[in-house]
Each structure stands twice: as C-alpha cells, then as structure tokens.
Amino acid sequence: MREAAFVKQNKEKWQKIDSQTQHKNISAEALADNFIELTDDLSYARTFYPKSQTVRYLNQLTARYFINIYQYRKKEKNRFLRFWIEELPLIMYKYRKYMLYSFIFMLAGVMLGVFSQQQDSTFASLILGPGYVNQTLENIESGDPMAIYKSTDQAPMFFFISTNNIKVAFIAFIFGIICSVGTVWVLFSNGIMLGVFQYFFYKKGLLLTSAMSIWLHGTLEISAIIIAGGAGMILGNSILFPGTYKRIYSIQKAVKDAVKVVIGLIPVFLVAAFIESYLTRLTEMPVYFNLIIIGLSALFIIWYFFYYPYYLNKKRNGKDQIV
After folding, report:
1. How far apart are CA 39 and CA 322, in angstroms?
2. Which of 42, 43, 172, 204 might form a disulfide with 58, Cβ 3.0–4.6 angstroms?
3. Torsion 113-172-169-92 (CA) sign
4. Cα 238 from Cα 253, distance rounded (Å)
5. 163 CB contacts (<8 Å, ≥6 apart)?
6. Which residues contact 125 (CB under 8 A, 6 or more apart)?
7. Distances (CA, A) of 236 to 38, 96, 176, 239, 252
C-alpha cells in the first residue's frame, strides 16, 4: 500500500485517538484498544515507510498513549471504588441493547407460561413441581397462601437462595458461549416459570397477594437474571459478530466485560436472597411496607443499571455516544 493511501485510510482514526489523549478519565478498555491499534499501525509504517513523517507522528502519538497508560496504573489504588462508580455503569451503557434483548426473551417466556397455564391447569405441576403445587394448595386452603416461605429457617434459606441465584446468573452468562442460544434458553425457561407461577395464583384469586410477596424480592432477583442474560449475549454475539476485531480478541474482550457485569450482580442477588429469606415470610406485613421495598428496589435497578450509565456516558463524552 502506498503511504498516501495508508495515511488516508487511517487518518480519521488517528485524529480521534489523538483527541482522546486529552481525556484524563479515558477508560482502561479504550486505552488498551487504542494502544494496540497504534502499535500495529506504527509497526506497519516502520516496515514500509521507515523514514517518513508518518512514522514520526505515530511514534509521538504512541508515546503519549504510553504515558496515559502509566498514569492509569497509578489509579489502580482506587480500583474497587472506580469499578462501581465508573467501570460497571459504562459497560452497562455500552451493551444496553443486549439488556433490552434479554428482557424481551424473558417477557416472551412469561407470556408463553401464562398462555400454557391458561390452556392446561396441570401445566403448573410440570413446571413448578407437583410437591410445590400441592403444598401451595394446602396453604391456600389454610388461609396462608405464601406460607411456603416459612417452611425453612432463615439462615439456611438465605445461603441456598443466594448461591442458587448466583449460579443461575453464571449459567446464563456461560451458556452465551453457544452463540447466545443457551442464554436465551435460560431466560425463556425462567420466564415460563414466572408466568406460570403468577397465573396459577391469579386463577385462585390471589394475584395481588402473590405479587406483593414475590416481587418483594423478585424485583431485584428477576432484574438481575435479565441483566445476567444480557451478559451472556455479550459473550455470544462476540462470537457471531466480531466486527473489525479478530474473533479470538473479540471473545476475550467480551468475556472481560461480561464477567464484570455478572460480578456486579452478586450484591444484588445477596440483598434479594436476604429479603426472600427474612422478609417474604412476614406475610402479615402491611401492603404499604411491601410497596416501599418493591419501589425502592425498582428505583435502584433503573437508576444504577440504566439511568446512571446513560448520565455518566453523556457527562464524560458531552453527547450520547460511547468512546
């Protein structure tokens, strides 16, 4: 390739990278990606245009980026805090469309679950298990429909629920390796269970009662599963659509981001498990108490995982785009 053509092909990219050197808060991911691009271009220019202005320009630009990387290493002392207030929210914004897809697949499962239970009243036993259904029917007859949440001591219940939900999240993520098909299956099957469960209580005239109990912890739990599904799709789509990257690099990059999302969900699952183990069993609580917890949980999910990422990205870049 002639030098003029090489410069024309890459000039806009270099200018963009050069402008980013002025951003003191540039992310580690952007630093790494840009540095790789620069060193590749510099190596090419040194090989084919060894004494050109292009080599000198790329040398200077790469040197400035190296300084940025060195300065970034100094920030690692605040790595833990920076993960929660900056890194994770920006990842959520970057992959926001996958979170939407995950929600759609979960919703489709809910709708299928409702439809199936509507057509066949025995479908609940198939999905939820005959033991659970029979016990719940007995609880309804005894006047305490949600008494099943009182059947286990709080501490063992908390441990089981938290570990099980975290396991489901990692499964939803790991199954993304099957080109996102495995993740879609996890979301769809969990959606079916949710739809069947809610319609089962609806037919018993207990929709509000069940919703007040289930969504007490489910607002956090279900939201976290949907976000974990989005993490699985990040992985799956990196295989299907690597873009301009080599597929192996695309996968490595996606795995780093997706794992961070799943790790960021662990506190959410722990809080949800605590609510389910210690509060959901208090079936005599006033409705307003349940509504307050459900409302605060929903506000947290919407603010931290969706609004704050948008706000942070806009604040960093001055407009609605990802660097």
Report:
1. 22
2. 42
3. negative
4. 8
5. none
6. 133
7. 28, 15, 5, 5, 12
Residue with tokens 């919407």: 302
Q: Please write the tens of the pLDDT for every residue from 229-266.
A: 999 999 999 988 887 778 888 888 899 999 999 999 99
Please report the sign of the dihedral spanned by the C-alpha atoms of residue 78, residue 83, residue 86, residue 87. positive
Helix axis angle, 28-48 relative to 53-74, nearest 10°? 160
Up-side HSE of residue 297: CA atoms within 13 Å toward CB?
27
Range with the largest mean pLDDT of 60-69, 124-133, 140-149: 124-133
pTM: 0.75
Q: Which two tokens stand for residue 208?
A: 């509000």
Around 134, how many Cα atoms within 13 Å sit in the side-chain half-sphere? Answer: 4
| Residue in this structure with the two tokens 């917890």, named with its chain if needed | 293
Both tokens assigned to 17 = 């990278």
Burial of 238: CB neighbours in 10 Å, binned 0-12, 13-18, 19+: buried
To which H or E segment does residue 252 belong? Answer: helix 247-274
Question: What Å distances lie between residue 209 and 81, 135, 136, CA to CA?
Answer: 39, 17, 13
Tell me the pLDDT tens digit for each residue of 142-192. 888 888 877 777 788 888 888 888 888 889 989 988 888 999 999 999 999
Reported as a pLDDT band with limits 50, 70 and 90, residue 69 is: low
Q: How confident is the model at residue 88 (pLDDT cuts 50, 70, 90)?
A: very high
Q: What is the mean pLDDT of the chain?
A: 86
Residue 13: both structure tokens together: 């990219």
Residue 154 burial by Cβ neighbours in a 10 Å radius (0-12, 13-18, 19+): middle
